[in-house]
Amino acid sequence: MQLSETVEWGLHACLALAMLPDGARIPARALAEYHGIKPSYFSKAMQKLVAAGIVQSTEGRSGGLAMGKPAEDVSLLQIVMALEDHQVLFRCTEIRQKGPCAAASRHYRAPCNIARVMRKAEAEWRRVLAETSLAELRQSATAEPVPGVNEATQTWLAETGAVRGT
Amino acid sequence: MQLSETVEWGLHACLALAMLPDGARIPARALAEYHGIKPSYFSKAMQKLVAAGIVQSTEGRSGGLAMGKPAEDVSLLQIVMALEDHQVLFRCTEIRQKGPCAAASRHYRAPCNIARVMRKAEAEWRRVLAETSLAELRQSATAEPVPGVNEATQTWLAETGAVRGT
User: Which B positions 131-150 lie with beta carbon below 8 A of chain A?
Assistant: First the structure.
């Protein structure tokens, strides 16, 4: 039942992108390095976020990744769903309609009571993720910075020239 | 992010066991057949429920499976967790502590704000599953029976002699 590790990567990567100055871009390779993640698999995850319109990718020498929409308009659910191949936690295969004692399919109009509870639980999970925007994450990350990280990041960005377009 | 298919099996199997008369047992093979599931993999799932104390297994000619505790005391969360190898949806690998700009680990006492939201969502999912007991499922299944299934089940049980101990 575990979410893909790319969900953790994607959430951190989007948070980092949301903290860039307006117009700035950072290559996927540098963003992977910043998070201590191997670039190849990370780039594939970023491509999923690009495909979903959450992240924008620009080609060329001054190209790189940037947010594809305002952080206020990106929920954590959107990021998770863009990165996960399976869109639901519980898949109902209608077991109740199988086996030697099942009735004709026309008798199964009401949803299975097991699927009903599983979906209700899943809806609560989604609700929390849908209610939290990337902007809120950015706000809490800005309000409670880890000592020294912002300074180290500025130095690293300057040294590597990773950020473009500013 | 998908739950194992054994979760669907286990929930339906526990519901069926919870509907058996007191003292009745049914072999895992017959319970699999009743649900239209191949017995071998199904039996392994049932063993996990036995290991968790949710289902009781009796050996011998008149042996079989029965509930290991009252349906009122079994939540859907217990069944799901007994069947899932991974106990959490979101695994935080502390990405924030990795990479070239991370601070010393002593500076990361507060939980990561990303993990915090992911765990809050997961707690809501768990809450719904923890609040729903197998007894409630049994009640709704009994209150809204699918036409003909109970009769077909009684006939099938009588013909196959699947239920023992009554």
Answer: 132, 137, 140-141, 144, 146-149
- pTM here? 0.94
Distance from CA of A48 to the nearest CA of B (A): 16
Q: What is the ipTM of this complex?
A: 0.95
Count of CB contacts below 8 A, A vs B? Answer: 190
Q: For the segment A136-146, what is each residue's pLDDT rounded down to a tens digit?
A: 999 999 998 89
What single letter denotes the amino acid at residue B37?
I
**CATH code linked to domain A5-87+133-160:** 1.10.10.10
Domain ranges for chain B, please list them.
5-87+133-160
